[in-house]
């Protein structure tokens, strides 16, 4: 619509100056035009899904394997195995030594990486289009033929232990790990991704190979391509390299437990450490899953609460009502609203950092008062602002082939299909203030909360007092 309006204004302007378009406007240089890019999917005989978004004019591509298995697929005894495997993937296979693997990637000028989350493990490569077949060959090699040598396991054990120490210094990571642990007590989703230090020290090759056997199966894997790799070409490569993957995961106790619906538990965990000069607090209600009809409504509601950072120049003018209250009264250094989704549940909440330790209770009170306001008093203007911010953030996040591949892989693994950016935009546009208030009444009003707090938190009220603010009448 914006482009049509711009064209109309341009035409009117030309007529106004020349008294009519006597000379037709012609293109100077040829500009290629292609219809809207679409995501194509194919499922192989063994159940492996191949998904691509082909851009005929792209010079590079991202290819990767998205696997429906992360720390949630582990047991208490094997927690940390998925992340450990990610580290070992690039340490040599039965066909390539670590040096050969690194040299091969280096000679292509490609980029090979991996990451682990609570529900997914991802291995991906970025390269020039002509090098995509070689990258797929490398990916299948590290996924199916990793040697997992004892010497490499011992070396990576020390690396991961050091990584664990670094994570423990990042207060935001610590707070969110504790938030999951308290919200999903004694459940797979409550475990950390790295695992406890004793597990990292004790993980053996047997546990690593068992994790691969139990979880790296075709029905839980999606081979994704984005950029200049045609769909048919990637399907051929998938058939060549991944046809031998087992079709289905064995229904082990860990698998069955990982697929059991997670129960949200209202509770709190507090780690008081007065040597930390700030109070770092996360509060969450049970949010929405990836497939929930209210998924985008949750994101719009989160955007209404907004974010705040005192260090930014626009801190007094960040749009949300809560940020105005926080800034005017100097209640926080920063806050971040969030909506984190999983396959069957989610966390919707706010993470706050403050050095105004005498007013921690006020910060929490006004944050929860803003939450309860959403249940009955939302203006069209703030919904439109939130929708505009959300659409911009989603579209800006799809900049580059790796971001597109990530979006395709995440959506198909978690929901079974990919919504196009245009479809997402239409869904967001249709959300009204009534939808926001209905969501808030269902998910926020008088609901149990999970609280995680670390640092100088003496001023944080007890759980019952904070929980009572979830049904405040103005």
From TrEMBL:
The keyword tRNA-binding does not apply. Its cofactor is Zn(2+). Residues 202-390 form the Peptidase M16 C-terminal domain. It is an enzyme of class 3 (hydrolase). InterPro entries: Metalloenz_LuxS/M16 (IPR011249), MPP/UQCRC_Complex (IPR050361), Pept_M16_N (IPR011765), Pept_M16_Zn_BS (IPR001431), Peptidase_M16_C (IPR007863). The keyword Metal-binding applies. It catalyses: Release of N-terminal transit peptides from precursor proteins imported into the mitochondrion, typically with Arg in position P2. SUPFAM superfamilies: LuxS/MPP-like metallohydrolase. Residues 50-197 form the Peptidase M16 N-terminal domain. Belongs to the peptidase M16 family. Catalytic subunit of the essential mitochondrial processing protease (MPP), which cleaves the mitochondrial sequence off newly imported precursors proteins. Preferentially, cleaves after an arginine at position P2. PANTHER family: GH01077P, METALLOPROTEASE. This is mitochondrial processing peptidase. It comes from Podospora bellae-mahoneyi. The gene is MAS1.
